[in-house]
Amino acid sequence: MDSFPVAIFCAKIMVANITKDHPRKKAIVGIPVRLAQAVLRLLRRKSGEGLENSLSYQFKNPELLAQAMIHRSWVPGRELETWQTNERLEFLGDSVLNMLVTEYLYDKNPTQSEGELSKKKSIIVSGRALADTARQWNLGKYLRIGRGEAKAGGRNKESILADAFESVIGAVYIDGGLDSCRKVLECSHFPRIDNILNDGELKNYKSKLLEMMHAQGKEAPIYQVVKELGPEHKKEFFVEVLVDNECLGEGCGVSKKRAEQDAARVAVLALDHKL
After folding, report:
1. Is the CB of residue 109 less than 8 Å from the CB of residue 5?
2. Do residues 241 and 249 lie in contact, with contact meaning Cβ atoms separated by under 8 Å?
3. What does the alpha-carbon distance between residue 179 and residue 16 come to, in Å, rounded to a whole number?
4. Residue 25 contacts by C-beta under 8 Å, 6 or more apart in sequence?
5. Which among 93, 156, 167, 267 would be 20 to 30 A from 130, CA to CA?
């Protein structure tokens, strides 16, 4: 059986399981009402409906969009817990995004192998590709981030923008469902796919390592976090990449995605050295 449609089916189950206790018609923001309304007023004052216009989507529950804009660095000194930031929406949005990109590639490339499709997907959902689309939305303008993070250029930081992109997709999914997410992507990220795939700088080490493993008839690499250091707002992640239970490389970064890329880079360089 072709495993790519199976992957789509499994992704749909994953998304359904993540949200099964939270019907989309219910508000699951979890932010104190007063604070959620304050964030929303600030968002509206800065943008009118500019962000929603950029998304080509109008929220029925705009507090979800407000939550999608809250970075963990904005929490200290406010009536918020870490779980009330955009990170849960990011977690959900990541699964929704991967499923819809998988579906798109499966439909658009009927003769390509699983390996070729997986390589393309890893590039399309890479941090840089997502951050570039987030910049087209002018997403950094609307983010609620801490002063220190803002001074350090956080509004244009790739990892923060990519995470916020996924948070927005998660918020759209809860607010309007899968079709709404698909339409948002069709108006923004999907039209960029050809350019993304042709951008040499976006051909990342994870996709390169995946390609090398497929060429050797091996399983796809597995990435796992082995350690986290630092405070919640400034964590450093340590990741190892495994193939057939063998560690091929270790890496670190300020986000899990960056740490995975670093681990893949170490693995690719080590494998190239052996050739």
Report:
1. no
2. yes
3. 14
4. none
5. 267
Q: Quote the distance between the C-alpha of residue 260 and its chain's center.
A: 13
Query: Which domains can be identified in the chain, with CATH numbers?
Result: 3-201 (1.10.1520.10), 204-274 (3.30.160.20)
pLDDT top residue among 232 and 14: 232
| β-pair partners for 246 | 243
User: Which class for 246: exposed (0-12), middle (13-18), buried (19 or more C-beta within 10 A)?
Assistant: exposed
Asked whether the beta carbons of 75 and 82 are under 8 A apart, the reply is yes
Is 129 a residue whose pLDDT tops 90? yes
What is the side-by-side order of every strand in the sheet holding 236-243?
A: 222-229, 236-243, 246-253
* Triad 25, 29, 31: Cα angle to 5°: 145
Checking DSSP bridges between strand 236-243 and strand 246-253, what pairing results, if any? antiparallel
Predicted local confidence at residue 273, as pLDDT: 75
Judge whether residue 122 has pLDDT over 50.
yes
Give the H/E segment covering residue 195.
helix 193-198
pTM given for the model: 0.68
115 touches 2 (CB < 8 A): no
Catalytic residues: 94, 166
Residue 28 pLDDT greater than 80, yes or no: no
Query: What ranges in the chain are assigned the alpha helix state H?
Result: 3-19, 33-47, 50-55, 63-68, 87-108, 114-124, 127-136, 147-151, 158-176, 178-187, 193-198, 205-215, 256-274
Distance CA 47, CA 39 (A): 12
